[in-house]
Amino acid sequence: MQKFVRFEKDGKTRYGLLKEQDICVLEGDIFAEYTETELTYKLQDVRLLAPCEPSKAVCVGLNYRSHAAEMNMPLPEEPILFLKPSTSVVAAQENIIYWPGISRLDYEAELAVVIGKKAHNVPEEEALNYVLGYTAGNDVTARDLQKKDGQWTRAKGFDTFLPLGPVIVTGIDPSNLSVQSYLNGELRQDGNTADLIFPVPYLVSYISRIMTLLPGDVILTGTPAGIGPMQPGDTIEVRLEHIGSLINKVGKCN
After folding, report:
1. N or C of the chain: less Cβ packing under 10 Å?
2. pTM over 0.90
3. Phi, psi of 157 (to 5 degrees)
4. What CA–CA distance (Å, rounded) separates 51 from 248?
């Protein structure tokens, strides 16, 4: 298991490997070839960024049996897909903005799959070979606009509506991971990826047959039951087993 981080230090953006509270700086490209250097930083001395820069985030709606039950909706026969733009990505500790014109803003804790190499028409049995690792995601949603529009681009696509991080973890099994959210320290979602209707290998293969996935792209795999609203001043934590905590506050537009 490795933990990649992307961070800023002295005005430079770098990748590193997180080892306890130390970051070993890398040279090269984590999606191709890289080497470890002798340069290290303390975690508290850098600013963590979102762990990757996706060209797109491909999201899967209604992909937990528990979530379908709470929404009183039948299980989908095929994955329900939508996109979030790259401009929606923010890092851990950055604010989610409660933009004007929104009357309900929801959290959705999710396992995010980080693509490691170009994937097109990938067989399901080979799909995990195209995955670099996994991180935590929050599919922030303007629920009122989602219902109003009938499709999800506006409700899901605002700036700051895709917190990712804080690390990309490799070498873990995505089929049995705890997925939780805590609003102001109170447990709100408590699911497990074993409840996924369409598991990770199926999703990677299915999506790759529709659009080419590029290194650094992410797939958000859906959210378990327990979604709910946030207010300005709230703190939302997405906690994933083996990955850690993605914590953001909700702020108002200045």
Report:
1. C
2. yes
3. -105, 5
4. 15
57-252 CATH: 3.90.850.10
User: From CA 5, how far away is CA 169, in angstroms rounded?
Assistant: 9
Q: Where are the domains of the chain?
A: 3-48, 57-252
Whether 62 and 223 have beta carbons less than 8 Å apart is answered as: no
Spatial neighbors of 64 by CB under 8 A, at least 6 apart, are 191, 195, 196, 197, 222, 223, 224, 225
Which DSSP letter does residue 213 get? Answer: B
| Whole-number pLDDT of residue 245 | 98
CA distance linking residue 90 with residue 212, whole number of Å = 23
Mean pLDDT of 148-170: 96
User: E strands of 62-122, at which residues?
Assistant: 80-84, 89-90, 96-98, 105-107, 109-115
Using CA atoms, how far residue 197 sits from 101, 193, 194, 219, 232, in Å, is: 33, 9, 9, 15, 33
